[in-house]
Write a structure and sequence with these properties.
- The protein has 163 residues and is an all-alpha fold.
- The chain has a domain of 89 residues.
- Helices cover 67% and strands 0% of the residues.
- It has 6 helices and no strands.
- Helix 2 runs parallel beside helix 6, helix 4 packs across helix 5 and helix 5 packs across helix 6.
- The longest helix is centred in the N-terminal third of the chain and has 35 residues.
């Protein structure tokens, strides 16, 4: 005998929507605060110190992303060393989400690459059980979202091949 499916009550749907909106509001607020802090810092320090700060920040975030991709590829059963090879790691991300690796060449097309990058991050988030908010985190701050996915409890779900 099949059990009847219980639908969520209106209160449960409203509460779920409020939680989702509060997560988005917190993310937007943190982006605004970081933008203001960066602007104030840029006005307060000399130009050469500012350049050194940016180089250190982007170097550290690149290292964090590479280490996180190493762990993500390990979870997905892909070769871990491919996380350390620039451009090839993007090809492996396409393979991770079940798309043809040669499709990654379209990321070299200006303007189209913005759409394709956001779509790729959405598919990566879905492969690890994420939602649209996590996709936004992967696009806006990958140096935070990739380690969350790599070292958190996210489990890789391989894509189902199209028939």
């Amino acid at each position: 005998m099949i059990a009847p499916v219980e639908l969520d009550s209106e209160e449960q749907r409203v509460a779920a929507g409020a939680r989702h909106q509060s997560r988005v509001a917190r993310m937007v607020a943190s982006l605004i605060v970081s933008w203001v802090a960066t602007s104030l810092y840029a006005r307060a320090v000399p130009h050469d110190v500012l350049i050194e700060t940016y180089v250190a920040f982007y170097g550290a975030s690149g290292l964090i992303i590479a280490v996180s991709l190493w762990r993500i590829f390990e979870k997905a059963g892909l070769p871990r060393w491919s996380a350390a090879v620039p451009l090839y790691n993007v090809v492996m991300l396409y393979r991770l989400v079940g798309r043809r690796p040669r499709d990654s060449a379209f990321l070299l097309v200006p303007l189209l690459n913005v759409y394709l990058y956001i779509r790729l991050m959405h598919e990566v988030a879905r492969a690890f059980g994420g939602d649209r908010v996590f996709t936004l985190a992967l696009v806006v701050s990958p140096f935070i979202a990739f380690p969350m996915m790599a070292f958190g409890r996210a489990v890789y779900r391989p894509p189902v091949p199209a028939k």
